[in-house]
Amino acid sequence: MRCMKEENMKIYNTLSKKKEEFIPIEEGKVKMYVCGPTVYNLIHIGNARPMIVFDTVRRYMEHKGYEVNYVSNFTDVDDKIIKKAIEEGVDASVISERYIAECKKDMEAMNVKAATTHPKATEEICGMLDMIGTLIEKGHAYVAADGTVYFRTRSFKEYGKLSHKNLDDLQGGNRSLLVTGEDQKEDSLDFVLWKPKKEGEPYWESPWCNGRPGWHIECSVMSKKYLGEEIDIHAGGEDLVFPHHENEIAQSEAANGKQFAKYWMHNAFLNIDNKKMSKSAGNFFTVRDISEKYDLQVLRFFMLSAHYRSQLNFSADLMEAAANGYERIVTSVSNLNYLLENAASATMNEEEKALLKEAEDFVTKFDEAMDDDFNTADAISAIFELVKFINTNTSAESSKEFLEALKAEIIMLSDICGLIVEKKEEMLDADIEALIAERQAARKEKNFARADEIRDELLSKGIILEDTREGVKWKRA
Length: 477
Ligand code: AMP
Ligand code: ZN
Fold this sequence. Notes:
This protein has three domains: 258 residues, HUPs (Rossmann fold); 100 residues, Up-down Bundle (Four Helix Bundle (Hemerythrin (Met), subunit A)), CATH 1.20.120.640; 48 residues. The chain is built from 16 helices and 15 strands.
């Protein structure tokens, strides 16, 4: 952790369309909410972009000394989840729980830290009923004849402030809804807060009808519960600016009477053949697909090699370039480890001290890039400069202290990007099996301390043991 230099950090705020200095609501703390995925399938690498980008924002803020309360939800009630549940003949919760578990596996494999809290919409219904009740009381929402509750969009005077849309233009575009006569809305701009259940769907009781929440109210409520009425950063992909985030602002600010979020951050799309990657268009690769060909650290490197507000086109060539780039850092660290094993002397000489001072420039460059609205592309360039410096200025003559200081620096910068660049040596199958045999022998002799020691040693090397009826089985973590 390093000293706080908060006055230098700039964030592009969708609300003002400007880069603004980051000033937290509470000194030393960051309250951050990132809209999470709807869980009805394995996540695709487009969904992985906000996960990796905002995890990196979080890591950088933590590196600067902030305590970050990071909340990211799972939307676990939705038409697509229900459709899949009906297709499989199971409860909707079976589908959502399955894909939450799979999503968490993917996040871990991409080295995306677990959020401080990962709330699920279905566990927050009471809060939603409360907020909808408040909105009705305050005249910002109304109940239609069939029990649907709508937000009265025109009652929120600042509607459109995030997406920079004009209410009257929006109205014009949607007028056809009013003409159909089937619509029970007062105004075509109004959106659903609560809707009646349909046959076979999950539902909750409410004062208005048995039903389920609209999508937007979920995030307003979960953000309020876990972070409070006013938060520092609200984030997600740019497709969420309108209507999702615009509607969240309307709901939260109308209900709480306070500014919902100070900074709104949005990542640009991950494209394929210059079109947004999406499940509905069918032009996607899942994170699992990619993991069959690449270490997911390469995917992470690929995502961070562009600024988060630039569109990024996925291609095999760019992934190969990312694999090479990532490997350059890994190789440099591995060379340092090799030199460290036989370092010529323990402490730094004067020349090394001067070199180490020079190397600090790369950290400064890295920080400057990250302070400038998290420019990870330039931050990675600073890591490459450090790699070049290390490769040029270290040798079998280098001292242990010097090598360790350089290694700490490169690992610190990589870690802020969430890149694991020090590869743990893989144990050979034969070595694992020999240790397992020794453990069995120790157990027979009732030497449980040794048996446990062996299990822990294997675990520290990523080998998990399972005692089964057929004997001991092992797998790599
Ligand atoms: P969804 O499950 O569709 O609600 O998406 C979860 C998150 O992934 C949201 O923040 C989306 O904005 C984001 N997202 C979805 N597709 C892409 C894409 N192709 N590129 C970047 N972000 C995306
Ligand atoms: Zn949301």
